[in-house]
Structures are given as C-alpha cells and as structure tokens.
Amino acid sequence: MSALGFLHPLLALLLAPLLPGVIHRTKSFFAGRAGPPLLQGYSDLLKLARKGAVYSRTTTWVFRLGPVVGLGAVATGLLFLPMGSIAAVVSFPGDFVALVALLALARFVTILAALDTGSSFEGMGASREAAFAALAEPALLLCLAAASREAGQASLTGIAAGMSGSVWVQGAPALLLVAAALLAVLLAENARIPVDDPNTHLELTMIHEVMVLDHGGPDLGLVHYASALKLWVVGAVLLDVVLPIHTGHAALDAAVLLAGLLVVALVVGIIESSIARLRLIQVPQFLVGAGAFAALALALAMR
C-alpha cells in the first residue's frame, strides 16, 4: 500500500458531486433548457448542511444512523478501487465481494431508516428497493467474477491491471457482455432511468427517493452525497473493465479516470433523455436481462 493509493478516494470525495451535475446539464441540453449550473450539487450540499433536521416522534436512532452508515459504507468502498496503474489502498483476492457487500450495507441501512419512520409510502419504496436489489447485486457479482476470470486476477486492483488491449481482443464477447450488464447495474444501483426517476415526485412510482422523504437538512445532504459517491464507485468499476489505460503517472491516471467518469455521466444523461422509465413490473425483466448477460459472460470466460 502506498500513499498514492489514497489519491483516488480523495478525488472521489472532492469531485463526486460533479457527476450528477453533468447528468442534469446533459438532460437540460436535450430538453432545450439552460439547466442548473454544473456545480449546483455543491451548492445544494452546503445549503442542506446549514439547515436543521426535524425528526418524527415515531423514529428512533435507526433513522438517524441510516445516512451516516450509508455514507460511511460507500466511502469505505472507495478504498478498494484502483486508479489506472495505482493500486487501491485495500487489495486482496476476492475484494470485489467486499465492495458489493459494502454497497449492500448502504442499501440495507437506508431501507431500515425508511421502515423506521412507520410511513406506508417509505415502506413501499423499501420493499421495491429490496426486491430489485436481489436481482441487481447478483448481476454485479457475476460481472466482476467474469472480469476477474478474463483478467486472470482475483482482486479489483488485479482486474484493472490485467485488462489490456490483448485481453480485450481475446475475450471481447465476454467483456462486451460484462460492460453492457455493468451499465444496466449502474442505472439500477443509482436509481436512474429506466429503472427509477430521481426527479419524480409521484410517490406511487418512486423507489429510492420515496425512502428518504422524511430526511432533511444535513441528513438529506449525507444521502445525496452518498448517492454521488455511489455513482462514482460503480462508474469506476465499469471503467476498470471498459477503459484499460495505465499510463504509469498518477496525474495522467487521475485525468483519464475523471474524463472517463464524466463520459459515463454524459452517457447516463443521454440515456435518460432518450428513453422513458420502465413500468415497475418491467424492471425485474430488465435486471434479469443484465444478470443473464453477466452469467453468459462468465460462462464464456470459463470456456
């Protein structure tokens, strides 16, 4: 472990709120609107941090702990992510399982906090989140297992280092399936269209956003910040497979990573501007399709 390994987590903590800003500006461009400033996410976080929090009498310490643990779990996941040729702070065989577990923990505490409110709407969103997570998380694990097999490495740092042009040439069918499945998982994990709409205000169709209706002030700021970090984490995992560039220079690796994540945010914005949200009964079909892609990729990688 070297000090340079902390560069990626620091970049993520500082720049993650940029990604939702790129998505919003992209959607505004396609809608013919000026849209919010690119740095609006930072302004919103500062505004929420200055506000006070109001808690229902029906909530307990579980509700207050949810945003803190959720942010901590996602931030801890950053320690497992390499940056180009720079190894992650924490790396061991099978560490991608720990990363998926941390993302699951963040979701779990968010669901617990929603249930702690006693609200029927938040309970409805929590049940949907749990049901869809049961399909998205296996797909993510299968994607990482297939990428591990193709790269011949069992850690996220090894996968990023092992992904080269020659590996892509030899395992293109499997890796293309992995990339497609990871993009679908990214949309599902981050509550984006076509799985969910983070900007909707209709409770009957909301999934993630309905779970945080009772959060306000600094707690809501932690939730939004954790969401931005989660988008960074899953996007970085996607880039480790799709963009195998290792310059050997920390500054260039950081620039490539940031450019790649901005492109991922741009693609998400284009997707959200081009297609409509799926009906709730179609979301499981979408996630099962991603899981089927990942399973087929693993079968091809093990051939």
What is the gyration radius calculated from CA atoms? 19 Å
Distance between the termini: 34 Å
Q: Tell me about the largest β-sheet.
A: none
What are the low-pLDDT stretches, counting only 5+ consecutive residues below 50? none
> Which band does the percent of strand residues land in?
under 5%
Give the SSE order as H and E letters: HHHHHHHHHHHHH
Number of helices: 13
* Structural class computed from helices and strand pairing: mainly alpha
Percent of residues in helices comes to: 55-70%
Summarize the SSE layout with pairings.
Blueprint: H1 7-15, H2 18-31, H3 40-50, H4 61-77, H5 95-116, H6 120-151, H7 156-162, H8 165-170, H9 172-189, H10 208-211, H11 218-242, H12 250-274, H13 283-301
Helix pairs in contact: 2-12, 3-11, 4-5, 4-11, 5-6, 6-7, 6-9, 6-13, 9-11, 9-13, 11-12
What features would you describe in this structure?
With 303 residues, the protein is mostly helical. The protein has 13 helices and no strands. Helix 4 packs antiparallel against helix 5.
Write a brief structural summary.
With 303 residues, the protein is mainly alpha-helical.
Summary tags:
13 helices, 303 residues, mainly alpha
